[in-house]
Design goal:
The structure holds two protein chains of two kinds.
Chain A lengths: L1 E6 L5 H9 L3 E5 L6 E9 L2 E7 L11 H12 L4 E7 L3 H13 L4 E6 L1 H6 L6 H8 L3 E3 L8 H6 L9 H7 L6
Parallel strand pairs in A: 1-4, 1-5, 5-6, 6-7
Antiparallel strand pairs in A: 2-3, 3-4
Chain B lengths: L1 E3 L8 E7 L4 H5 L8 E7 L6 E5 L2 E5 L1 H4 L2 E5 L2
Antiparallel strand pairs in B: 1-6, 2-3, 2-6, 3-4, 4-5
The chains are: A alpha/beta, B mainly beta.
Chain lengths: 176, 75
């Protein structure tokens, strides 16, 4: 099993990555492109698990090289659990990517990062309700301070694949 | 009144009414969809990108994209 950290650019994926891996960070270059990704290991259930910091992408329809790498890495690691890092302030567009990944059939855990920034902006997210609708674990995090990281790690095992139709139904159907 | 997103004035607010088909998925990843409220923040000179505020964050869009998004603004 591998863990992929995915999300938009600038949502704190690398901050989460550093928190999860500690000092055991190795850097590598993806062949054929100029875009870097970072690979490391974290302890999960007594085992070392590989975790990859994927370049930021807005959607799974790549618009540039970095996004192509991101999508390619997702497709090449079919057996992965995806930690989808979302900027809590930009929840809606973050969910767009998360739903695309869920739709592709990957088990997902959502980290609502920069929770403190959202609080400062008077944004409050009903985490329980979001979890109920999506059917995947949703954890508020503040990667720079480490808040929520333990819960995020402990809930990786709860990640499971969800049928997108079920989410649509729970969310109250599609607006036309 | 309906106008192109690129024609909005500084500080003007509007609601997205339509987006040219092939662009829909592209801008959805940036948080723009039909029904979304947005506000013009800045326009860069020399056919540069426009910057709009959606919810509580700003995004920049190329002029070519902003030309293909129609918004309803109050008069």
């Amino acid at each position: 099993m591998k863990i992929l950290l995915m999300g938009h650019p600038n949502v704190g994926k690398s901050a989460v990555f550093n928190r999860l891996t500690g000092a055991k960070v190795t850097e590598s270059n993806y062949p054929g492109t100029t875009v870097d990704y970072t690979k490391g290991y974290m302890r999960l259930g007594g085992k070392d698990v590989e975790i990859i910091d994927v370049p930021g992408t807005f959607s799974l329809e790549p618009k540039d090289k970095a996004e192509e790498v991101a999508v390619k890495m997702l497709k090449e690691n079919r057996d992965s659990v995806i930690i989808c890092v979302i900027d809590s302030v930009k929840l809606e567009r973050g969910l767009y990517l998360a739903l695309e990944i869920i739709e592709e059939g990957y088990p997902v855990v959502i980290a609502l990062n920069m929770w403190d920034v959202a609080e400062d902006k008077n944004i409050w997210i009903d985490v329980e309700k979001l979890e109920d609708i999506l059917g995947v674990p949703v954890v508020p995090t503040i990667a720079v301070s480490g808040k929520g990281m333990k819960e995020l790690v402990s809930r990786i095992k709860e990640a499971s694949t969800v049928n997108i139709e079920k989410i649509v139904e729970k969310a109250g159907g599609v607006e036309q | 009144m309906r106008k192109k997103l690129s024609e909005m004035d500084y500080g003007e607010e509007g609601v997205v009414k339509s987006i040219e088909g092939y662009l829909r998925n592209k801008v959805a990843g940036m948080g723009i969809r039909v029904g979304k409220k947005l506000k013009m923040a800045t326009k860069q000179p020399i056919k540069g990108p426009v910057v709009v505020t959606v919810d509580q964050y700003t995004i920049s869009l190329g002029l070519g994209i902003a030309d293909k998004i129609i918004v309803e603004v109050e008069e």
